[in-house]
Protein backbone atom coordinates (compact mmCIF):
# COMPACT_ATOMS: atom_id res chain seq x y z
CA UNK A 1 0.00 0.00 0.00
CA UNK A 2 2.77 2.45 0.97
CA UNK A 3 4.56 1.58 -2.26
CA UNK A 4 1.50 2.59 -4.27
CA UNK A 5 1.26 5.84 -2.31
CA UNK A 6 4.96 6.61 -2.99
CA UNK A 7 4.48 5.96 -6.72
CA UNK A 8 1.44 8.23 -6.74
CA UNK A 9 3.39 10.98 -4.96
CA UNK A 10 6.28 10.67 -7.40
CA UNK A 11 3.83 10.88 -10.30
CA UNK A 12 2.18 13.94 -8.82
CA UNK A 13 5.54 15.68 -8.27
CA UNK A 14 6.61 14.85 -11.83
CA UNK A 15 3.38 16.26 -13.27
CA UNK A 16 3.72 19.37 -11.13
CA UNK A 17 7.33 19.90 -12.24
CA UNK A 18 6.36 19.41 -15.88
CA UNK A 19 3.50 21.88 -15.61
CA UNK A 20 5.67 24.49 -13.92
CA UNK A 21 8.47 24.07 -16.45
CA UNK A 22 6.01 24.40 -19.31
CA UNK A 23 4.59 27.57 -17.81
CA UNK A 24 8.06 29.06 -17.42
CA UNK A 25 8.98 28.23 -21.03
CA UNK A 26 5.71 29.63 -22.35
CA UNK A 27 6.27 32.78 -20.37
CA UNK A 28 9.83 33.05 -21.67
CA UNK A 29 8.78 32.72 -25.29
CA UNK A 30 5.32 34.23 -25.27
CA UNK A 31 6.33 37.15 -23.10
CA UNK A 32 8.90 38.43 -25.63
CA UNK A 33 6.41 38.01 -28.45
CA UNK A 34 4.00 40.34 -26.69
CA UNK A 35 6.78 42.78 -26.00
CA UNK A 36 7.93 42.40 -29.58
CA UNK A 37 4.47 43.30 -30.88
CA UNK A 38 4.36 46.49 -28.86
CA UNK A 39 8.01 47.41 -29.40
CA UNK A 40 8.17 46.84 -33.13
CA UNK A 41 4.80 48.30 -34.15
CA UNK A 42 6.28 51.75 -34.81
CA UNK A 43 9.72 50.67 -36.08
CA UNK A 44 10.78 51.01 -39.73
CA UNK A 45 10.09 47.94 -41.81
CA UNK A 46 12.76 48.60 -44.43
CA UNK A 47 16.38 49.54 -43.76
CA UNK A 48 18.82 50.72 -46.44
CA UNK A 49 22.51 50.56 -45.51
CA UNK A 50 25.53 51.99 -47.33
CA UNK A 51 29.10 51.65 -46.19
CA UNK A 52 32.78 51.24 -46.89
CA UNK A 53 35.74 49.35 -45.51
CA UNK A 54 39.48 49.98 -45.67
CA UNK A 55 41.03 46.57 -46.26
CA UNK A 56 44.35 45.00 -45.48
CA UNK A 57 44.60 42.07 -47.89
CA UNK A 58 46.85 39.03 -47.45
CA UNK A 59 46.57 37.75 -51.00
CA UNK A 60 49.58 35.74 -52.01
CA UNK A 61 50.57 34.05 -55.27
CA UNK A 62 53.64 32.19 -56.45
CA UNK A 63 56.52 34.56 -57.15
CA UNK A 64 57.87 34.69 -60.69
CA UNK A 65 61.52 33.70 -60.40
CA UNK A 66 63.31 33.02 -63.73
CA UNK A 67 66.56 31.07 -63.43
CA UNK A 68 68.85 34.00 -64.26
CA UNK A 69 67.87 35.72 -61.01
CA UNK A 70 70.21 33.30 -59.23
CA UNK A 71 73.13 35.27 -60.67
CA UNK A 72 71.82 38.66 -59.50
CA UNK A 73 74.49 40.52 -57.49
CA UNK A 74 73.83 40.61 -53.76
CA UNK A 75 74.02 44.41 -53.78
CA UNK A 76 70.69 44.46 -55.64
CA UNK A 77 67.43 43.89 -53.76
CA UNK A 78 65.09 41.04 -54.66
CA UNK A 79 62.32 41.71 -57.17
CA UNK A 80 59.83 39.74 -55.06
CA UNK A 81 58.27 42.73 -53.21
CA UNK A 82 57.41 44.42 -56.52
CA UNK A 83 55.48 41.37 -57.73
CA UNK A 84 53.08 41.15 -54.80
CA UNK A 85 49.40 41.84 -55.20
CA UNK A 86 48.14 45.09 -53.65
CA UNK A 87 48.22 45.01 -49.85
CA UNK A 88 45.48 47.57 -49.31
CA UNK A 89 42.14 48.26 -50.94
CA UNK A 90 38.73 49.76 -50.35
CA UNK A 91 35.37 47.98 -50.35
CA UNK A 92 31.97 49.51 -51.02
CA UNK A 93 28.91 47.81 -49.60
CA UNK A 94 25.15 48.07 -49.75
CA UNK A 95 22.40 46.22 -47.94
CA UNK A 96 18.61 46.24 -47.85
CA UNK A 97 16.76 44.64 -44.93
CA UNK A 98 13.07 43.99 -44.42
CA UNK A 99 11.73 43.61 -40.89
CA UNK A 100 7.95 43.05 -41.06
CA UNK A 101 5.98 44.76 -38.29
CA UNK A 102 4.84 42.67 -35.32
CA UNK A 103 7.36 39.99 -36.34
CA UNK A 104 10.81 38.89 -35.28
CA UNK A 105 11.79 37.78 -38.79
CA UNK A 106 14.49 39.57 -40.82
CA UNK A 107 15.12 39.28 -44.57
CA UNK A 108 18.13 40.86 -46.21
CA UNK A 109 20.21 41.08 -49.39
CA UNK A 110 23.67 42.62 -49.41
CA UNK A 111 26.61 43.18 -51.75
CA UNK A 112 30.24 44.01 -51.10
CA UNK A 113 32.60 44.96 -53.93
CA UNK A 114 36.23 45.98 -53.92
CA UNK A 115 39.09 46.43 -56.33
CA UNK A 116 42.73 47.47 -56.13
CA UNK A 117 45.77 47.69 -58.36
CA UNK A 118 49.46 48.48 -58.26
CA UNK A 119 52.06 49.49 -60.82
CA UNK A 120 55.65 49.18 -59.61
CA UNK A 121 58.83 49.84 -61.57
CA UNK A 122 62.07 49.23 -59.68
CA UNK A 123 65.41 49.76 -61.40
CA UNK A 124 68.73 49.22 -59.68
CA UNK A 125 71.97 50.03 -61.49
CA UNK A 126 75.66 50.29 -60.69
CA UNK A 127 77.63 53.45 -61.42
CA UNK A 128 80.25 52.37 -63.94
CA UNK A 129 83.29 54.70 -64.05
CA UNK A 130 85.86 54.99 -66.82
CA UNK A 131 88.64 52.43 -66.57
CA UNK A 132 92.23 53.75 -66.71
CA UNK A 133 95.22 51.46 -67.26
CA UNK A 134 98.90 52.39 -67.64
CA UNK A 135 100.29 51.64 -71.08
CA UNK A 136 104.13 51.33 -70.92
CA UNK A 137 106.45 52.57 -73.65
CA UNK A 138 103.55 54.07 -75.58
CA UNK A 139 103.80 57.76 -74.83
CA UNK A 140 104.10 56.64 -71.20
CA UNK A 141 100.48 57.50 -70.40
CA UNK A 142 97.29 55.90 -69.18
CA UNK A 143 94.79 54.35 -71.54
CA UNK A 144 91.24 55.36 -70.54
CA UNK A 145 88.40 53.02 -71.43
CA UNK A 146 84.83 54.26 -71.14
CA UNK A 147 81.98 51.93 -70.11
CA UNK A 148 79.49 50.75 -72.69
CA UNK A 149 77.12 49.10 -70.18
CA UNK A 150 76.51 48.61 -66.44
CA UNK A 151 75.20 46.04 -64.04
CA UNK A 152 71.49 46.50 -63.48
CA UNK A 153 68.30 44.78 -62.30
CA UNK A 154 64.95 46.02 -63.60
CA UNK A 155 61.50 44.85 -62.48
CA UNK A 156 58.21 46.18 -63.86
CA UNK A 157 55.07 44.67 -62.32
CA UNK A 158 51.43 45.58 -62.92
CA UNK A 159 48.98 43.68 -60.72
CA UNK A 160 45.26 44.05 -60.03
CA UNK A 161 42.49 42.23 -58.19
CA UNK A 162 38.75 42.58 -57.61
CA UNK A 163 36.24 40.70 -55.50
CA UNK A 164 32.47 40.55 -55.08
CA UNK A 165 30.52 38.97 -52.21
CA UNK A 166 26.70 38.68 -52.25
CA UNK A 167 24.51 37.51 -49.36
CA UNK A 168 20.84 36.57 -49.29
CA UNK A 169 19.59 35.73 -45.82
CA UNK A 170 16.50 35.06 -43.74
CA UNK A 171 16.84 35.26 -39.96
CA UNK A 172 14.93 35.41 -36.72
CA UNK A 173 15.55 37.62 -33.73
CA UNK A 174 15.80 35.32 -30.73
CA UNK A 175 17.16 37.92 -28.33
CA UNK A 176 14.13 40.01 -27.31
CA UNK A 177 13.79 39.74 -23.56
CA UNK A 178 16.78 37.41 -23.30
CA UNK A 179 18.53 37.61 -19.92
CA UNK A 180 16.17 40.42 -18.97
CA UNK A 181 17.64 42.82 -21.53
CA UNK A 182 14.61 44.31 -23.19
CA UNK A 183 16.39 45.85 -26.19
CA UNK A 184 18.92 43.10 -26.83
CA UNK A 185 18.86 41.93 -30.45
CA UNK A 186 20.24 38.53 -31.39
CA UNK A 187 19.55 37.45 -34.98
CA UNK A 188 20.36 33.98 -36.29
CA UNK A 189 20.24 33.81 -40.09
CA UNK A 190 20.46 31.17 -42.78
CA UNK A 191 21.08 31.98 -46.40
CA UNK A 192 23.19 31.75 -49.50
CA UNK A 193 26.56 33.41 -50.10
CA UNK A 194 28.01 34.06 -53.57
CA UNK A 195 31.67 35.04 -54.00
CA UNK A 196 33.85 35.94 -56.94
CA UNK A 197 37.61 36.69 -56.97
CA UNK A 198 39.74 37.81 -59.92
CA UNK A 199 43.40 38.75 -60.22
CA UNK A 200 45.79 39.62 -63.06
CA UNK A 201 49.57 39.98 -63.17
CA UNK A 202 51.91 41.33 -65.84
CA UNK A 203 55.54 41.04 -64.73
CA UNK A 204 58.67 41.91 -66.68
CA UNK A 205 62.15 41.23 -65.28
CA UNK A 206 65.42 42.32 -66.93
CA UNK A 207 68.96 41.93 -65.73
CA UNK A 208 72.64 42.47 -66.58
CA UNK A 209 74.31 40.81 -63.60
CA UNK A 210 77.97 40.53 -64.61
CA UNK A 211 79.13 43.35 -66.84
CA UNK A 212 82.83 44.17 -66.28
CA UNK A 213 85.99 45.46 -67.95
CA UNK A 214 88.40 42.94 -69.42
CA UNK A 215 91.83 44.03 -70.67
CA UNK A 216 95.03 42.52 -72.05
CA UNK A 217 98.52 43.80 -73.04
CA UNK A 218 99.59 43.04 -76.60
CA UNK A 219 103.17 43.36 -77.87
CA UNK A 220 103.62 45.41 -81.04
CA UNK A 221 106.98 44.36 -82.59
CA UNK A 222 106.30 46.38 -85.72
CA UNK A 223 106.33 49.56 -83.69
CA UNK A 224 109.48 48.71 -81.84
CA UNK A 225 110.88 46.65 -79.04
CA UNK A 226 108.99 46.78 -75.71
CA UNK A 227 106.09 48.66 -77.22
CA UNK A 228 102.67 47.52 -76.02
CA UNK A 229 99.06 48.30 -76.66
CA UNK A 230 96.09 47.51 -74.42
CA UNK A 231 93.12 45.65 -75.83
CA UNK A 232 89.93 45.44 -73.85
CA UNK A 233 86.46 43.98 -73.84
CA UNK A 234 83.31 44.55 -71.85
CA UNK A 235 81.48 41.19 -71.58
CA UNK A 236 77.93 41.19 -70.25
CA UNK A 237 74.65 39.27 -70.10
CA UNK A 238 71.33 40.67 -71.23
CA UNK A 239 68.55 38.64 -69.58
CA UNK A 240 64.81 39.18 -69.83
CA UNK A 241 61.66 37.33 -68.77
CA UNK A 242 57.91 38.08 -68.77
CA UNK A 243 54.88 36.59 -67.03
CA UNK A 244 51.20 37.04 -67.87
CA UNK A 245 48.77 35.45 -65.41
CA UNK A 246 45.02 35.58 -64.84
CA UNK A 247 43.25 33.79 -62.00
CA UNK A 248 39.63 33.61 -60.84
CA UNK A 249 37.17 31.81 -58.61
CA UNK A 250 33.37 31.74 -58.77
CA UNK A 251 31.39 29.93 -56.09
CA UNK A 252 28.27 29.87 -53.96
CA UNK A 253 26.95 27.90 -51.02
CA UNK A 254 25.01 27.90 -47.74
CA UNK A 255 25.83 30.39 -45.02
CA UNK A 256 25.02 30.72 -41.33
CA UNK A 257 25.45 33.92 -39.36
CA UNK A 258 24.74 35.33 -35.93
CA UNK A 259 24.66 39.05 -35.22
CA UNK A 260 23.82 40.74 -31.95
CA UNK A 261 23.43 44.24 -30.61
CA UNK A 262 23.18 45.42 -27.01
CA UNK A 263 22.59 49.02 -25.83
CA UNK A 264 24.94 50.42 -23.21
CA UNK A 265 24.05 54.12 -23.14
CA UNK A 266 21.09 56.37 -23.96
CA UNK A 267 17.56 55.35 -24.84
CA UNK A 268 15.62 54.61 -28.07
CA UNK A 269 13.72 57.91 -27.96
CA UNK A 270 16.68 60.22 -27.39
CA UNK A 271 19.33 58.14 -29.16
CA UNK A 272 21.33 55.23 -27.84
CA UNK A 273 24.77 53.70 -28.20
CA UNK A 274 24.92 49.99 -28.99
CA UNK A 275 27.70 47.45 -28.97
CA UNK A 276 27.44 45.24 -32.07
CA UNK A 277 29.14 41.95 -32.86
CA UNK A 278 28.67 38.93 -35.07
CA UNK A 279 30.19 35.87 -36.76
CA UNK A 280 29.53 34.11 -40.05
CA UNK A 281 30.51 30.81 -41.68
CA UNK A 282 29.89 29.47 -45.18
CA UNK A 283 30.95 26.72 -47.55
CA UNK A 284 31.34 27.84 -51.16
CA UNK A 285 31.21 25.31 -53.96
CA UNK A 286 32.70 26.59 -57.19
CA UNK A 287 35.38 26.51 -59.81
CA UNK A 288 38.78 28.15 -59.98
CA UNK A 289 40.61 28.82 -63.23
CA UNK A 290 44.19 29.85 -63.90
CA UNK A 291 46.03 30.76 -67.10
CA UNK A 292 49.73 31.60 -67.10
CA UNK A 293 52.26 32.28 -69.83
CA UNK A 294 55.92 33.03 -69.25
CA UNK A 295 58.91 33.47 -71.51
CA UNK A 296 62.62 33.80 -70.76
CA UNK A 297 65.54 34.88 -72.98
CA UNK A 298 69.25 35.20 -72.31
CA UNK A 299 71.92 36.92 -74.38
CA UNK A 300 75.66 36.81 -73.72
CA UNK A 301 78.06 39.25 -75.43
CA UNK A 302 81.82 38.77 -75.07
CA UNK A 303 82.25 42.48 -75.69
CA UNK A 304 85.49 42.26 -77.73
CA UNK A 305 86.54 45.82 -78.66
CA UNK A 306 90.09 46.94 -79.50
CA UNK A 307 91.94 49.92 -78.13
CA UNK A 308 91.24 51.91 -81.29
CA UNK A 309 87.57 51.00 -81.33
CA UNK A 310 87.71 48.18 -83.87
CA UNK A 311 85.73 45.03 -83.08
CA UNK A 312 87.55 41.78 -82.66
CA UNK A 313 86.60 38.39 -81.28
CA UNK A 314 83.09 39.50 -80.34
CA UNK A 315 80.73 36.56 -79.87
CA UNK A 316 77.01 36.63 -79.00
CA UNK A 317 75.24 33.62 -77.56
CA UNK A 318 71.44 33.62 -77.36
CA UNK A 319 69.34 31.43 -75.05
CA UNK A 320 65.76 31.46 -76.29
CA UNK A 321 63.53 28.60 -75.03
CA UNK A 322 59.94 28.21 -76.16
CA UNK A 323 57.29 30.06 -74.10
CA UNK A 324 55.56 28.04 -71.40
CA UNK A 325 51.75 28.17 -71.21
CA UNK A 326 49.57 26.54 -68.55
CA UNK A 327 45.76 26.45 -68.31
CA UNK A 328 44.07 24.78 -65.31
CA UNK A 329 40.50 24.50 -64.00
CA UNK A 330 39.42 22.78 -60.77
CA UNK A 331 36.19 22.30 -58.83
CA UNK A 332 36.81 23.22 -55.21
CA UNK A 333 35.06 23.75 -51.88
CA UNK A 334 36.14 26.95 -50.13
CA UNK A 335 35.51 27.31 -46.37
CA UNK A 336 34.71 30.87 -45.31
CA UNK A 337 34.86 32.29 -41.77
CA UNK A 338 34.37 35.89 -40.71
CA UNK A 339 33.27 38.21 -37.96
CA UNK A 340 32.91 41.82 -36.87
CA UNK A 341 32.69 44.01 -33.78
CA UNK A 342 31.79 47.68 -33.47
CA UNK A 343 29.76 50.49 -31.98
CA UNK A 344 26.69 52.15 -33.44
CA UNK A 345 24.64 55.22 -32.66
CA UNK A 346 20.93 54.64 -33.24
CA UNK A 347 18.28 57.31 -33.33
CA UNK A 348 14.73 56.56 -34.37
CA UNK A 349 14.99 55.65 -38.08
CA UNK A 350 18.73 56.17 -38.58
CA UNK A 351 21.92 54.42 -37.49
CA UNK A 352 25.64 55.09 -37.91
CA UNK A 353 28.11 52.29 -37.19
CA UNK A 354 31.89 51.98 -36.88
CA UNK A 355 33.87 48.84 -36.31
CA UNK A 356 36.32 46.22 -37.53
CA UNK A 357 35.44 43.34 -39.84
CA UNK A 358 37.35 40.32 -41.20
CA UNK A 359 36.58 37.64 -43.80
CA UNK A 360 38.79 34.66 -44.64
CA UNK A 361 38.35 32.40 -47.69
CA UNK A 362 40.62 29.36 -47.49
CA UNK A 363 42.13 27.93 -50.68
CA UNK A 364 40.05 30.18 -52.92
CA UNK A 365 42.61 30.84 -55.67
CA UNK A 366 45.03 28.69 -57.65
CA UNK A 367 48.07 30.94 -57.26
CA UNK A 368 50.60 28.67 -58.95
CA UNK A 369 52.45 29.37 -62.19
CA UNK A 370 53.17 25.98 -63.76
CA UNK A 371 51.42 23.78 -61.17
CA UNK A 372 48.46 24.07 -58.81
CA UNK A 373 49.08 26.01 -55.61
CA UNK A 374 46.10 26.82 -53.37
CA UNK A 375 46.17 30.31 -51.89
CA UNK A 376 43.86 32.04 -49.42
CA UNK A 377 42.03 35.31 -49.84
CA UNK A 378 41.51 37.45 -46.73
CA UNK A 379 40.14 40.93 -46.13
CA UNK A 380 40.17 42.74 -42.80
CA UNK A 381 40.07 46.30 -41.57
CA UNK A 382 37.93 49.13 -40.19
CA UNK A 383 34.51 49.85 -41.64
CA UNK A 384 31.78 52.46 -41.37
CA UNK A 385 28.12 52.29 -42.39
CA UNK A 386 25.07 54.53 -42.35
CA UNK A 387 21.53 53.12 -42.33
CA UNK A 388 18.19 54.78 -43.01
CA UNK A 389 14.87 53.25 -41.96
CA UNK A 390 11.71 53.56 -44.07
CA UNK A 391 8.08 52.72 -43.34
CA UNK A 392 6.76 51.65 -39.99
| Whole-number tally of structural domains | 2
Helix content: 10-25%
Q: If classified by CATH, what would the architecture of the largest domain be?
A: Beta Barrel
Structural class: mainly beta
Strand content: over 45%
Largest sheet: 10 strands, antiparallel, barrel
Strand arrangement across the biggest beta sheet: 1-2-3-6-7-10-11-14-15-16
Which shape, going by the Cα principal axes? elongated
Structure description:
The protein is mainly beta and 392 residues long. Strand 15 and strand 16 form a beta hairpin. The protein has 2 helices and 16 strands. The N terminus is likely disordered. It is elongated. It has a 10-stranded antiparallel beta barrel. The protein has 2 domains: 40 residues; 346 residues, Lipocalin (Beta Barrel).
